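User: My collaborator sent over this chain with a note saying "see what the structure looks like." That's all I know about it. Can you take a look?
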Amino acid sequence: MSRKERDKKRSKKKKIRIFSIAFVFIYLIFRSVPVLHASTLKTAIVEEGILEDKIKLKGFIVKDERVYSAEGKGRIKLYKKEGERVKLGTKIAQVSLLDNNSFLREELKEVNKKIDSIEKIAKENKTMKSDKNKVNKNTNKVLDEIQDQIVYENYEEIPDLKKELYSFLGKQESIDGKNTLASQTLENLQKKKEKLIKEIANNTIDYISKESGIVSYKIDGIENLYSTENILNYNIDDIKELESQINIKTMKDGDKVNVKDKLFKIVDNHNWYILVQVDNIKTISPLKEGDNISAFIDNDDQKLKGKILKINRKGRQAVVVINFNSFFHNYYDKRIVDVELVKSRHEGLKIPIKSISEKDGIKGVYIKDISGIIRFRPIELLGKNEEYAIISSGDKNNNIKIEGSDDLVKTVKIFDEILLSNRKIREGQIVD
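Assistant: Without extra context I'll predict from the sequence alone. Here is the result:
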């Protein structure tokens, strides 16, 4: 072989070698592009979490409250603090009178008149009592007569005898019943009389709690307009008017008071209610009557447990009546509040909503497995909001069923690393 031929052959081999090296280099560049892209993708670790679907609405608190009013003109002294719990029979306030006790004296006159009337009735009943034995004898006599007439089959006499019997029985009942009622009423009036005499003598009026509960000197005028007895009947028109009727007045120690001025109120701290205003009934779905519900008031962290007693609808609007029986001391002096209702609560694996994508019509997420390869995992969505979703962790092997198939497929598990963006991602890519 000539030198020229050898040089030609050597040049050909060199060209082939250069081409092969260039081909491999170009291949590696193209192969590394998706890897480089994938390595820049942001990821998140799957953790367990809870998601609550909430809605914020306006609410109106209705409570069982008794208002105490001034019975005379004077200056008030307060014995209990605002918000303090008191027992039945506790002295709450005292009014030192500034006039001639005319209000109390008029009330004492009325009490004396009632006492005189009852004592007069009692005397009449005493006379009737002396005839009680006679009435009993006459009753027994008529009964014997009725039995005799039945034996001798003189039935035409029986109707008149029955009337006579009813007459004696009525007299006997009247004697016993009136006497009992009169004695009870007279006892109460005598106590009232003693109290009035003492107050006139001391020139003061004491105000004693007639129930246990929380004391409040803040009166807003709603106390006697909205009651717990009528709680199930309020509609959207009722609570729209409520806000305009509120006029808060607070009694302070040493204030001057006039007759019928509102002094304080005792509020039952056991059962209370919120009327929730709903402008679009669809926004509270899937809540319904009888549901137990969680709620937050005025952005407080305290979660309240309540029960939906009634949903009164009017067109698209509604009033939701919710009963609570705890933590009332935090809200006893409130009337209009912001209420955040928890419509649903889900527990499971928590993932960012933006990580969810779809492949072949199946919802899922892309994960980076232990070898750095991107894989698609179907998910079962339990609940979501604008930022996060709660998904099922599946059975003990992390398998779930997907719609349209009876086969089990592997889903996401806790501590998986999921990709936050699904743009330009394909299964099988490698992440460094």
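A starting point for your reply to your collaborator: The first strand starts at residue 43 and ends at 45.
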